[in-house]
Input
Amino acid sequence: MSQSKLFGTNGIRGTVNKELTPEMAAKAGGAIGTFFGKKNLLVGHDARTSGPMFSRALIAGLTAAGCKVLFAGMAPTPALQFAIKNHKMGGGVIITASHNPPEYNGIKVVWSDGIEISHEQENEIENIYFQNKEKLAEWNQLGYMREISEINDEYVQAVKKQVNVAKIAQKHFHVVIDGANSVGGITGPVLIRDLGCKISTLNANIDGTFPGRMPEPRPENLQELAQIVKALGADLGVAFDGDADRSIFVDETGQIHMGDKTFGVVLKQFLLDNPNSEVVTPVSSSTLIKDIAETYKGKLVWTKVGSVTVSQKMKEVNAKLGGEENGGVFYGPHQSVRDGAMTTALILNIMARTAKKLSELVADQPQYFIEKGKTECTEDKKPKVLEKLLEQSKGMNINTLDGVKIWFPDKSVILVRPSGTEPAYRMYAEAKTPTRAKQLIKEYTEKLEKILKTI
Ligand code: MG
Output
């Protein structure tokens, strides 16, 4: 981490005792506590081995700054976010590195509405941290920590309120849950059992070394789940990421469906129930989402890529649904943040209401083929490349919220955007045939290389 930068695209994140140390967590606690100004804060962590260590260091800093801390221990990120709102806290801090490997951890700061703080607010904390402006309390004004144990249960009860439990229970679904050896294994099985389903579990034992699989729910990490769903003849498989705010589903045939498709399933039902509603999604989402929104009379609001941006936009336009291609679904009636357990309950609710299997719900959707690409580009050249690319895209149907997205008349699409984490441009193409998607990646890789030679 550089001298002036603490927060990256996903809060504070780094490798344990190398990029992120307990000393830093304690100092960050002092800065975060100063930022909040002696408010009541909730703190919790995911299943990583370093979670308790970082929580305690952070809480030392928070209480030194005079904050009163409720310590929830191990819980999914969405359960902690829900608890912050539900217990009317001034805010909260979550120790998690989400989908990163076990040697990572991170610090995510959340506002009183359960949504992560804005980048402007992160800058305020950074200033306090780097300029040593922490306001530490006098000995008789120190904050304190109290433990709270019931938040996971409150969260499960709240999720259940959003769906028709009796209707789901009538179907006696068999669900296989892959908890990634992390916090999804705490609330996922309890919720799905409470919905009257038969459950089988995989990687549901808590183990912060993540021995079962890596916590990113990508297809290559979910092969075992897919095989087990098929072998057991189960109705559904669900895999959570490391902090259980995202969920990826497997249908009864063992097919893994990426987030766009399952968000599409949720979107269609939501628009049938709430026509003419606003729905928020980043520009990286599939054309599938645009098609479904148009067919079922939804108003799509595009944002930059990033879950915080989606949450903030939902608040701004008062939208009740948001979704990302990575398996993040934001269901406003519960909370406007990504929530893996809520998404699972919604999918089961739709399967029960429509009497359709997940494979059938997905087969109803328009089909697109996806190709991805990457071109190296140093940070200093990124803005110039975008400028040139925009010049060359004049007169085309484009969106420039995040990089450039171009819609072609044959319904194919390319998104070219500077990576937030690497010195590179990322490309994402979608088309009605695999050949066209491949051709678009090739064409734009060449275009970028040409531009890079001229600047
Ligand atoms: Mg996550």
